[in-house]
Specification:
Elements (H helix, E strand, L loop, with lengths): L1 H17 L10 H7 L3 H25 L8 H23 L1 H7 L10 H9 L6 H31 L1 E2 L4 H4 L8 E2 L8 H4 L1 H42 L1
Antiparallel strand pairs: 1-2
Helix pairs in contact: 1-7, 3-4, 3-7, 4-5, 4-6, 6-7, 7-10
Length: 235
């Protein structure tokens, strides 16, 4: 039980922070930068990617013993494509307007290196429950970056947040839009692709800064402990 807890904790830290697919591995940048003009777009694509990651990881883990090593990559791609087809049809049926907004980037989930990479590097070597959790935290880490970037671009670009929430949650969310500030001239740099590059760079810089501060603090605490141990030994 203790080993399982430690494993799940390690997977959580890796997926959400240390090995985040978007911030560290820099995978899936094409859809990440292209569709995150709003928070809801980022949330929709993030949930779709998370669903595909979990489903593909579990399926790959279950069938890994029967897949010949020589054809494992094509088989993994077919499994991922099946799940992408399912999520595409579901979005087409229940969230059609969001489906139109995300466009070609839904089927392009098949080519997301983060999904193929986790299937090959982890799911194909682990039992289903660990593969499922790995897919969940990796997908969640990717989705959080999508939402953060989409929220930043929407606020700075249009002065709103949660605009178009009804496209994902239905009519109940028609009045969820938060107006942060009024503007007659949207800040196009934030809405257009260059704004996505700038916003992504700022997020990565912030993560690196937090990591450096944490590392400096840990090193300082280690030096302090060594000095205290030395003083205690000498006395």
């Amino acid at each position: 039980m203790s080993n399982l807890k430690d494993t799940l904790q390690t997977l959580s830290i890796e997926g959400l922070w240390k090995n985040n697919p978007a911030l560290v591995q820099l995978l899936g940048l094409c859809p990440l930068l292209a569709v995150t003009a709003t928070f809801i777009n980022g949330l929709g694509l993030g949930l779709a990617t998370l669903f595909v990651l979990v489903g593909a990881n579990v399926t790959v883990s279950v069938v890994r013993q029967w897949v010949p090593n020589d054809i494992r990559i094509p088989v993994f791609v077919m499994i991922i494509a099946a799940y992408v087809t399912v999520i595409e049809l579901l979005m087409n049926a229940f969230t059609y307007n969001l489906y139109l907004a995300l466009g070609i980037f839904i089927p392009l989930i098949v080519t997301n290196c983060a999904i193929i990479g986790r299937a090959e590097a982890y799911a194909s070597k682990q039992p289903p429950h660990l593969a499922a959790y790995d897919g969940f935290v990796m997908g969640l880490g990717f989705a959080l970056v999508l939402m953060l970037l989409g929220g930043m671009r929407e606020i700075f670009g249009a002065g709103t947040l949660f605009a178009g929430a009804d496209r994902l949650f239905g009519d109940i969310a028609s009045d969820w839009t938060i107006v942060v500030f009024q503007t007659d001239n949207p800040f196009l740099l934030a809405i257009l692709p260059p704004g996505a590059f700038i916003g992504m760079g700022l997020i990565i810089a912030l993560k690196n800064y937090i990591d450096s501060v944490y590392k400096s603090r840990v090193e300082s605490e280690s030096i302090t402990k060594v000095e205290r141990a030395r003083v205690t030994a000498e006395s």
